[in-house]
Design goal:
Catalyzes the formation of N(7)-methylguanine at position 46 (m7G46) in tRNA. The protein is built from 8 helices and 7 strands. By secondary structure, it is α/β, with parallel strands linked by helices. Strands 3-2-1-4-5-7-6 form a 7-stranded mixed β-sheet, sandwiched between helices. The longest helix is centred in the first third of the chain and has 14 residues, at 20-33.
Amino acid sequence: MNDIYEGAFFGRRKGKTLRPAQAKRMGKLLPRLAVDLHEPAPAPLGRLFSGAVDDITLEIGFGGGEHLVHRAGEAPRTGFIGVEPFVNGMAKALAAIEAAGLENIRLHDDDAIGLLDWLPAASIDRAYLLYPDPWPKKRHWKRRFVGPDNLDRLARALKPGAEFRFASDIDTYVDWTLRHVRAHPAFEWSAECAADWREPWQGWPGTRYEAKAIHEGRRGYYLTFRRF
């Protein structure tokens, strides 16, 4: 089944049938960690988390959660909000979160737009968009997450001075992102030399999408933009 939602920025919602243990976590652990968009966002946003946090990071489309779980494990005083509508990716991330005993992660299993609109203004310290669906066909480019409307949403949610980090192995999407983000009045590209966009960020654990790209002979590009 090609479960693609018309007008969405993601593709399939479901892949293989979940194993019983995965389904159990989806039914019990996900509701405990899920952000409830039907309730007003807490003020300050750090109250989403059971423990005290010093800052908050958002990851849009975390895939299997490799990067999200790694970062949350190395920074227990940072609260992480992860977004992933793909059921199988969410199930994989939940298993890793449970195994690591992490309490500084909250999750959203639907389109990121609803979450971005729910977040209080200037509440996020850093945002990641890593190896997003490139929608390579020109007629699908409107589905690429990076665009004026979503950049407006990100700009509203990010604190002044916060970073928006983007990674992709698709040249056309990298060019697209540079063009759109640099044209937005709320962002500036922070690169000062080639290494700033050819090398991953400090502490980078890699992702399965990056590994696939490298295996297929493509390299990743790592763009950092700063919110004015």
